[in-house]
Structure formats: structure tokens, C-alpha cells
Specification:
The protein is an alpha/beta fold and 294 residues long. Helices cover 30% and strands 23% of the residues. It has helices at residues 18-28, 72-87, 101-104, 108-112, 155-166, 194-208, 242-254, 283-293, and strands at residues 3-10, 35-43, 50-52, 68-70, 94-98, 118-122, 134-136, 141-148, 168-177, 213-219, 234-237, 261-264. α5 (155-166) packs across α6 (194-208). 34% of the residues are buried.
């Protein structure tokens, strides 16, 4: 029978942390035969280790109280490394990395437990010998926006959407590129239908945090209402769309609107056998992989 697994693991402070190495070793030892989806839930060692970061906290990884300070870029790198760990060994299992529940105030596993094929594997999160307290130190916004094609929702998309969800408290706009803007894409005939791409993207972010008000938009031009909306405060972009953020803020300045804070995510590197762009995980590479299998 098919199964969904959830591996609950302790949150490392960095991707170089010994906790991370132990986690990866554990995860790669999981038997994934007949597994349709693997959730990796990042857990604090103990509930008492949650603390609220203050503006006075240092930026070097330790706060003024001696706590371990984990920023958004730290979480992004950690989540990226777990996605890469599975790209490197099994590209055919759907992996979802769940951020610490304390960030969003919601534990997705409570909802997932209702599935009869859902199995939880615990690894050390309640056995940690560390007495460290962890503070999460990064701004969160009431309105966040991002956009993309979201074809074959892959690790790069998931990282970008995860950063957006962790940065958002209330309202999020997600633009999904309309078919008419994809005519020049390679292997365009293999691009998933707009409805499929939209539904998969919405399902993913709702799994991370269903309490955000998500508005899915059909992008028939690259900027939608980002140049005029007063409900948006931050824009999540990838390195290749940096110019889009610059243009949006130029137009907002001309309209005397507050500029959007720009959150730029990193690329998730593909495994060696992936093909396509060797510098990033991409939908084009996945379509090329599928085309070669035909």
C-alpha cells in the first residue's frame, strides 16, 4: 500500500550543524518503497526553547541574552539542504519540508494525522541534550506577494513558497503564469495545465499554514497589481527576477506608495544526473528529463 511518512527531526541552527548531519543520515536511511510523500518536520528540541526575538538581538547568530538566533536566511538554507538531500538520492518521492510550528503558530501534522496511511517517525527532537534556547529573528509582513510558472512543483518552488509563508502573517497573493506567456518556454507542450499548477501551489502553501488568506492570481502580465496595491508589503523573488522587483518599486515610488521589501531566495541545486541548468533546479530541466524518458 502507498504511504505518507512524516519524519520529525530537531531543528539545526545552521546547515553545517552536527544536528543537521545526524538528521540527513537518519533521513537517507528511511525505506521509501511505496511512499508517495515524505514530510520532514523541523522541531524545536523542547517547547520551552521558544523565545521571541527583539530588535536589539545581534546579527551574528547569538542574541543579547545568549540565545541562539535563527534568521530567515538560516531557515532558508536549512530547508534548502533537506530538499537537496532527497534530490540527490530519490527524485521521485514528493518531499515537503514543514517549517517549525512555532513560526506560523500552527502544527500541520495535527491535520495530516487524519490520513490512515500517515506514519510518524521521530528522530531525536525530544531527546536532544542541548539546553539552547532558539529565537527566530526576521520580519513578518501582513501582506506578501510572489509569482511564477509553478510547473511540476519542485524543490526550488517549494523553497520560495516556504520563505513566503514563513514571512507572512495574514494575506498572500500568488501569481501563476497564464499559458499565453509560456509560448517561448522549452518543451512548452509538456507544461502542466494552468489549473493543475494553481491547485498544486495552493495545496502546498495551505499545508504549511492554512490560516493565511491566499489569493491565487492568473498572471497575464508580469506585475499584476504589485505596482498599485496597498495590501502588499513584501515581494519574494528569485535571483533571475531581481529586475522585476526593481521595476515594481520604481512604479510604486512614482505613485507615492510605500516600497515593497524585497526577499530574495537562493537557488536549489539539482543532482548531477538532472540535466538542464546545472546551477538551479528548474521546471525546464524536469520537462527535458520527461521528454528524454518518452
Amino acid at each position: 500500500p502507498t504511504r505518507m511518512l512524516c519524519a520529525r527531526i530537531p531543528l539545526p541552527c545552521t546547515a553545517q550543524d552536527a544536528v543537521h548531519r545526524s538528521n540527513v543520515s537518519f533521513l537517507k536511511g528511511i525505506e521509501l518503497s511505496n511512499v508517495t510523500r515524505l514530510y520532514i518536520q523541523l522541531m524545536l528540541a523542547e517547547p520551552s526553547s521558544v523565545a521571541t526575538a527583539s530588535p536589539q538581538d545581534d546579527q551574528d547568530g547569538t542574541s543579547s541574552s545568549g540565545d541562539t538566533c535563527v534568521g530567515l536566511s538560516d531557515l532558508e538554507e536549512i530547508i534548502s539542504m533537506y530538499y537537496f538531500a532527497f534530490l540527490d538520492c530519490n527524485m521521485d518521492v514528493d518531499v515537503v519540508v514543514l517549517p517549525p510550528a512555532e513560526i506560523c503558530g500552527y502544527d500541520p501534522v495535527d491535520k495530516l494525522k487524519a490520513d490512515t496511511n500517515f506514519i510518524i517517525l521521530d528522530h531525536g527532537y525530544n531527546k536532544s541534550s542541548s539546553n539552547r534556547r532558539i529565537t527566530f529573528s526576521f520580519p513578518r509582513y501582513t501582506g506578501v506577494v510572489l509569482g511564477g510558472t509553478y510547473d511540476r512543483l519542485h524543490a526550488g518552488h517549494k523553497l520560495m513558497l516556504s520563505v513566503a509563508v514563513m514571512s507572512c502573517t495574514t494575506y498572500m497573493e500568488i501569481g501563476v503564469t497564464a499559458p499565453q506567456l509560456l509560448e517561448r518556454k522549452k518543451y512548452k507542450e509538456l507544461i502542466q495545465p494552468f489549473e493543475t499548477r494553481t491547485n498544486m501551489t495552493l495545496e502546498f502553501v495551505q499545508t504549511l499554514n492554512p490560516h493565511i488568506d491566499y489569493r491565487m492570481l492568473k498572471l497575464i502580465e508580469p506585475y499584476a497589481n504589485t505596482t498599485t496595491s496597498t495590501a502588499l508589503h513584501a515581494l519574494v523573488i528569485s535571483p533571475e527576477t531581481k529586475s522585476v522587483g526593481t521595476y515594481i518599486n520604481e512604479k510604486r515610488a512614482e505613485a507615492h506608495l510605500p516600497l515593497l521589501d524585497i526577499i530574495e531566495i537562493r537557488y536549489v541545486l539539482p543532482p548531477p544526473e538532472f540535466g538542464g541548468d546545472v546551477n538551479k533546479m528548474s521546471s525546464t530541466g524536469l520537462r527535458e528529463r520527461e521528454w528524454k524518458r518518452q
